[in-house]
Every structure is written in C-alpha cells, then in structure tokens.
Amino acid sequence: MLKARSILKQLNGNLELFADEEETQYEHILSSISNNQVQVIGPELIYGRLFDKIGYDRIEDKLFRHLVITRLYNPGSKLKTIDYLRNYLGENWEIHNIYRFLDKLNDRFKSEVEDISFAHTKRVLKGKVSVVFYDMTTLYFESSDEDDLRKTGFSKDGKHQCPQIFLGLLVGAGGNPIGYDLFEGNIFEGHTLIPTLEKFEHRFSLKKPIVIADAGLLSKANIVLLEESGYKYILGGRHKNESNEIQTQILNLSLKNGECAVIKKSKNQRIIVSLSEKRAYKDQENRQRGLRKLEKRIGSGKLTKASINNRGYNKYLRMEGDVRIEIDYEKFEGDARWDGIKTFVTNSRLKAQEIIDNYRQLWFIERAFRMNKTDLRIRPIYHRLRNRIEAHICISFTAYTIMLELERILKNNKSEITLKQAGELTKRMYQINVMLPSSGKMRQYPLAMDEKQTELYKLVLKNS
C-alpha cells in the first residue's frame, strides 16, 4: 500500500507537469498571433456568396467585387476601401488603381450589371414583370460648382443652393431592380418617365407593363404620352386639382374606413377613391403642425407679402388690408373634409382594390432610396467627373441588389435576423492565417461562429 501510494504521488506530479507544459504551449501559440493574421471573412462569406449567386461574378475585374462588398461592409470613401483591402484581405491597392477602374467601369460594365440584375429580378418574380414602379430622387453635392450633369434645381433634400443630380429608378414587384438612369439636376422629373420606360422596355423586351408612379409624374403631357405609347398606368392622384364637379363627387361618397369607390373621369380614365382613418389622423396632425408653425412665424413678424403662395401650408395665409398678414382659419378648417382621402388615376381595367394594392408597393422605391442613402451611404459623393459619379452609382445599385436578396432569404426562411443585424454579424466573422513552420504553407483557420452567425451563414449557403 505504501509503495502504491508512492507511485500514485509520482504519477500525479507528472500529470500536473504535463498540464503545465500544455498550457505553456497554448500560451506561446496564442501570444505569437499578430493582428495582421486575423482576417474578417464575414463580408466574403455572406455578401460574396450572394454576389456570385446573382451572377455578378461574370464581371471579370476583381476590383468591382471588392468595391461592391466594401460598400456593403463598410461604406465610405474609396480611401476606406483601400484600407479595408489592405487590413482585412491583405491586398495592396493604390488610389490611382481605384480611380482608373472607376473611369472605365460605366462604359465597360454598366450594361452587364443591369443585364445581370434584370435576369435575377426575372428569376425572383418567376418570369413575370407585368408591373413596374418608377420614381426619382435627388443627390446633392457640397461643392458650389455646376457642370453638365450637376445643376442646381428643385431639391427633394431641401438643398436648393447645392448642385445636384437626379437618380431615376425602375423596379418590379417587391422593389426588385430593373434599371436606373442619371439626369441633370435641373431637369423636370416628369420628362424622365417615358424615356426611361422605353429604354428598358426595348432593352429587356418588356411587354407593356402597367406603370405605377407617384403624383409628381401626374401631368397631362405624361398621361397623353403613356396612352399614345400603349401603356396602362396607375398614378397617384391630386384630388384638390380636379374640377369642382369631380371634387363634389368625391366628397359626396361618404366612405367609411377601408372603403373605396370609382369615379369615371373620361372615356379611358377612372379615379379610384379610398378612405383611411389612419391617414386621416396623420393628415390632421400634419395640418395642425403646419398651422402652429404659421402662427409662430406671424408672431415673429417675419412674414411678408412674398410668403403668400400655394407652397405647403402657406396656402392658409391671406392679406388683410395692405400690410397685415393673417391666417385663413376658415380655409384651414375646410381642408379637414379631405383628411384620409387618397385618389389614384388609372386607365387600367384592374379592380379598385387591386389598383390600391399595386400602388402601395411604390413604397419599395422610397425604401430603396432610403437604403441607399442611409445603409449604403450613397452620399456624400466624393467625385466631380461624370464617369466616376456614374461608376459610384453603379456600385451602389449592385450593393442594393445584394442587400435586397439577403433580405428576401431571411424573410422567406422566417428568420428573426434583420438586415442591420446581419451586417453586424458579418463584421464579427473571423479566421486566423498561420504559416506552418515545417512546410512553410499558409493555412486558414476560421474561428467558431456563435448561434446567430451560424444561422445566417447556413441560410445563405442553403439559398445560393
């Protein structure tokens, strides 16, 4: 027994010695790993796989891939792109390489990017592109210099003093992109609808889809051109601009929440009228807010005769005598009759509710602009030359298509992961690059993913 105890004591001591040696080895290995051996692989694992799935890998130049994925992972200047490529992919690029590529991107690759994007949209929509949505937004520049493209004009961002460009976007159901175009910053947006439609109709052999656009494109000239070209359309209405007869018919409908009705405007045109209590509440709140602002401005004494116009809530102002400006409260109260009413002008034969449901999808374009301006930070644009501006928009358009596809995968699989969360998850997917001492070969060791990262990766893998 004494001998056995002696042997056990020796064995236990050796085991502790071996354990200490093992920990020392682990500590030595871990402490020898430098920061430049740790690589973020999430952007390639997630966005890169979707880039390939959609078909953008057919574009030969590798720099296009890098610029698009960087726009998704860490949107910013092209200098930030260089830092990302150097720090996380171990690739060294100079800024002149980026600019030279941008100079040729639009001429060489834009058509191919649009072809790939449309083919993807057609697959997602199961070959049916029967409805298209069109809208425009403005992108302004801090520079005060104008040129052939950047012009001062009406700014949707409220930056009327800054030169800007117009971005027109054409999408299918669900916001899936068809194409885009750039226009001078002082163009009337109504003049862009027909050229854009005809361009992509001929390009992709679209068979006269129903065109849906907001009230900003509702002009007699546009409607005449749409009808002459054989298009069916659904346009946001401006009921207060209709004739007194039509306005009386609308107000006499006595609709209840969620109800809709049809008024025949002409031989080919109908006006669809709907009422929403939720919209009525919002309309009332907006009018009250506008009234409070006017009352404050009148109290400050800053309003002049030039302030009396039909822009916004200035329509409630009137002149009293020669010098006094006051609020027309009677007109303000009269507008309450229109709270909650929304109209749509159409020449299609769709049922009233179908027209309303289709028009509601127009918010996908507004969302596309918002995603590009916030998530992808399409602004500020650090370029002055037209070809580089166009290249920047092309990169953002591609990144948006990938983002939309990721959202579609998450939604179809009923995942609780949001787009924003997915972006954060990709930033924390790493691997360690190690040079093996015996063979001198570089090996990559991905670090284990957490539960959410694993879910995201498996969903993208399964659907690509």
Name given to the CATH architecture of the domain at 126-276 and 341-383 = Alpha-Beta Complex
**Helical residue percent band:** 40-55%
Q: Briefly note the CATH topology name of the domain at 126-276 and 341-383.
A: Transposase Inhibitor Protein From Tn5, Chain A, domain 1
What structural class do you assign from the helix and strand content? Answer: alpha+beta
What's the end-to-end separation, in Å?
Answer: 67 Å
Spatial order of strands in the largest sheet: 4-3-2-5-6-11-8-7
Number of strands: 13
Share in β-strands: 15-25%
Shape: elongated
Query: What's the average pLDDT?
Result: 84
How big is the Rg? 30 Å
The CATH superfamily title of the domain at 126-276 and 341-383: Transposase Inhibitor Protein From Tn5, Chain A, domain 1
Largest sheet geometry: 8 strands, mixed
CATH C-level category of the domain at 126-276 and 341-383: Alpha Beta
Q: Order of SSEs, N→C?
A: HEHHHHEEEHEHEHEEHEEHEHHHHEEH
| Count of DSSP H/I helices | 15
Low-confidence stretches: none
